[in-house]
Structure formats: structure tokens, C-alpha cells
Amino acid sequence: MNPTSLLQGRRVLITGGARGLGHAFAEAAARAGARVVIADILVERVQQSAAELAAQGLDVSGLPLDLADPVSIERCVATAVERLGGLDGLVNNASITNSGGKSCEELEIEMFDRVLQVNVRGTWLMTRACLPALRQSGRGAVVNLASDTPLWGAPNLLAYTASKGAVIAMTRSLARELGSDGITVNAIAPGLVEVEATQYVPAARHQLYREQRALQRGQVADDVSGAVLFALSDLSRFITGQTLPVNGGFVMP
């Protein structure tokens, strides 16, 4: 199958599309033939991101989204479905970390709750809001961005690691529930990707990751895009409930 037609005619909503992984996923999906809406709480950045891709002749537009606000989620999904004329794929990419570097004793209760509210509840509510359109599609695919942190137990990252472990568990549960509707639900678990959102991670930690991977180099956003395209496409139509680590061999579960 020609990669440029892998998602031909598909209608895809990607959260967290203002920068980093979400921007890379949007570009890859659009180049594979999809019509894409990206959504983010960074309203100006998401519009700029969409405009940059549209200027390259790609069918990408942007919408505001606050995953902590159920009303914002419903409004975003309704607008995206109307704009695209339906929905074939959802990529739950948006998440927050915010607790990096703090031990379990130092981590504030409010921050723990905030991370789970966005990363776990937000993923559930986005998926729920998209279900009517995904069912109508007849070939719906949900791709949840997890992380390899719950696969090895990242220290001083308790809230984020717990939230991504929950995303992996939800992926399996949703796959069981939605299989009868012909909807696949899979998770992608990247390692430490070198993007703007991980600039807070000390350089020594980035170097440690590079050295301990089987593929000893830094991981960039485009390293993850192929797995997302695969999970959205017909190539994975009989794969569901799975978590695919994409980390250069740092963790091999």
C-alpha cells in the first residue's frame, strides 16, 4: 500500500496538536491522505500549527480544547464532526506531566488530581463524545497515547506514570466494549521523545535513555508517527486492545 494513500479519505481528530507529537501526527496523517482536525488548549498555537500545515497543501484545521472541561470536549467533537462530515479516527494524544522531578512525598494532591483529570478522564470523555460518529463510520479507530513509563516504573513521575498505566488499562477495556461496533482501540507507548514538552528533563536523563536503548540515539516525534498511522489504518483492522511500545528498545515487555 502506498504510504501517501494509507489514510485516503479518512477523517481524523487529534488532540494536543499544537506542537510536538500531535503536530507530527497531524502532518503524517494528512500526508497519508486524511482530513485532519487538531485540537489543543493552546488556542493560538493550535491555529498556527494548523495554518503551517495547511500552507503545505495539507487538509488540517484547528480547534480549541480543554480536556478538563466536559463542555469544551463536547463542543470540540461536535464542531470537528461537522467540519469533517463524520469521523473515522481519534488520536488521544494530549496530556500533561507537571509532576516531573517530585518524589511521591513531595507531589501535591492537587497536582496528582489534575494530571489524572486531564490524562485519564479527558481520554475517556473524548472517546465517549466521539463514539456516535465512530460507530457511524463503520471503520472507527481510537489510538491512545500511553507511555513506556508504566512498563518500567519511572521514579519521581508518579502521577504521569499512574495516568499512563490507566490509559493502557482503559485501552483494553474499551477494546472489549467497542469491538462489536467494529471500532478498534489501541495504545502507543513512546519512550522519552525529544520535543518541546520534554525540555524540562535534565540532559543527563536524555543521555541515559540514548545509551540504554537498543537503538542508541535520541527519539524524535517522527519515530512515533508510523505506529499511529498503522493503528489508524486498515493494516491494523484485526488488532485491538494492544499496547505497542515505540522506544527504540529501551523497554522490551
Question: How would you sum up this structure, described in words?
Answer:
It contains 8 helices and 7 strands. Helix 1 (20-31) links the parallel strand 1 and strand 2 (35-40). Strands 3-2-1-4-5-6-7 form a 7-stranded parallel sheet, sandwiched between helices. Helix 1 packs across helix 8 (222-232), helix 3 runs parallel beside helix 4 (109-137) and helix 4 packs parallel to helix 6. The protein has one domain: Rossmann fold (3-Layer(aba) Sandwich). The chain has helices at 20-31, 43-54, 70-84, 109-137, 149-152, 158-178, 203-212, 222-232; strands at residues 11-15, 35-40, 60-64, 89-92, 141-145, 184-190, 243-246. It is α/β, with parallel strands linked by helices and 253 residues long. The longest helix has 29 residues, at 109-137. Belongs to the short-chain dehydrogenases/reductases (SDR) family. Keywords: NAD, Oxidoreductase. InterPro entries: KR_dom (IPR057326), NAD(P)-bd_dom_sf (IPR036291), Sc_DH/Rdtase_CS (IPR020904), SDR_fam (IPR002347). One of its GO terms (molecular function) is oxidoreductase activity. This is Putative oxidoreductase.
Name the helicity range: 40-55%
Supply the CATH superfamily name.
NAD(P)-binding Rossmann-like Domain
How many domains is the backbone divided into?
1
- How do the strands of the widest beta sheet line up side by side? 3-2-1-4-5-6-7
What portion of residues belong to β-strands? 5-15%
SSE order in H/E notation? EHEHEHEHEHHEHHE
Mean pLDDT reading: 94
What is the overall number of helices?
A: 8
Largest sheet: 7 strands, parallel
- Which residues form runs of ≥5 with pLDDT under 50? none
Q: Determine the structural class based on helices, strands and strand pairing.
A: alpha/beta
